[in-house]
Amino acid sequence: MTDTLKKFLSEDRSIRVCSVHLESVWQQSVASHNYHTAVQKVLGELLAAATLLASSLKFDGSLLLQIQGTGPIRLLVVECRADMSFRTTVKMSDQAIDDDHQTFKDLINPDGLGRFVVVLKPPEDNPDRQSYQGVIALEGSTIAQVLEFYMLQSEQLETRLWLASNDQQCVGLMLQKMPEYGGVVDKASAEYIESDHWALATHLCETLSQDDLLTLDQDTRLHRLFWQTPVLNLEDTQVTWRCGCSRGRVIGMLQMLGQVEVESICAEQGRVTVSCEFCDTPYEFEPADVAMLFTPTGIDSGTTLH
How much is the average pLDDT of 115-142? Predict the structure, then answer.
């Protein structure tokens, strides 16, 4: 089954295993964008990683992963919500992409000045809660290495990721060493002994090739890796694509931009057109609509204009 996240624990609860395989929702999320093959590959890997990380968090808002680059890719953004719906966007610079095989460093971090940003946003119906934001330098030559470094340095949680993506699907596998169940106590010697399940699990996952990730279905892949490992099944979750943009949100944005600026754009272009940066849906405002935005009585962002 595609578009599914699977989670389980090793029987001794020392390792969390998460696997995701996205096809139709991945294709839907990029259908309205003409991304270069190399860009789409990196975005797909970030989406798979964000879905895996979001599944391991106990939160009711949304997780945003942002990679700020200085190469052809200026910004990669994936937002994954608690209900396992997501949206993505990419912003490009004027730099050319030479070929389909440019590396992560070539595309995003050629001078080592890129940044990785993690944001935990509270639910929109709870404005009193504060967002959390963490910013670190990009450390690593792949999306997986960047996130592994972040999880270890910022969350003190040892994490390994295996990611793959093409125009049809994006796939990810994550192992996390659970801190409260990292080993066992030898009662005879009263010594703490590190569980060897982590070393074995990472060794097995290291045998996965990109071809294995992209051609094997989830159940076959997980069975091949963990068929000898007793596990505790947690749950399977469907992942969906949902942008969340609306005309009301755009109205609120235009009102914040201000009457002078919006009327200037309308005068120059004959109307105001705003396209959603995530799904590319256009929202058009004719001069009469623009005038209504700033009437003395006020038009709130929930009002539908035509």
Answer: 84
Q: Which residues of 56-88 are buried (b: 16+ CB within 10 A; e: fewer)?
A: beeeebbbbbbbbbbbbbbbbbbbbbeebbbbb
pLDDT at 305: 42
Q: Is 118 within the bounds of a domain? A: yes
Same domain, residue pair 68 and 149? yes
- The dihedrals phi and psi of 207, each to the nearest 5 degrees, come to -80, -10
Same-domain status, 139 and 158: yes
pTM over 0.70: yes
Residues 88, 239: Cα–Cα separation, whole Å: 14
pLDDT confidence tier of residue 180, bands split at 50, 70 and 90: low
Domain count, the chain: 2
User: d(Cα 245, Cα 265) in Å, to the nearest integer?
Assistant: 21
Residue 153: enclosing H or E segment and its boundaries?
A: helix 143-155
Shortest CA distance to 107 belongs to which of 142, 135, 134? 142
Task: Please give the average per-residue pLDDT across 130-151, as a whole number.
Answer: 90
Distance between CA atoms of 45 and 283, rounded to whole angstroms? 30
Which H/E stretch holds residue 240? Answer: strand 240-241
Specify the pLDDT at position 2: 80
CB < 8 Å & 24+ apart, contacts of 89-95? 89/277, 89/278, 90/33, 90/35, 90/39, 90/43, 91/277, 92/39, 95/71
- Does residue 74 fall inside a structural domain? yes
Examine the domain organization and report whether 226 and 282 are in the same domain: no
For residue 204, the surrounding DSSP H or E stretch is: helix 197-206
Same-domain check for residues 135 and 284:
no
Dihedral, 126, 83, 150, 133 alpha carbons, nearest 10: -20
CATH number of 126's domain: 3.55.30.10
Q: Is residue 300 part of a domain?
A: no
The 8-class DSSP code of residue 179 comes to G
Domain hosting residue 270, numbered range: 247-293
Answer whether residue 299 is part of any domain.
Answer: no
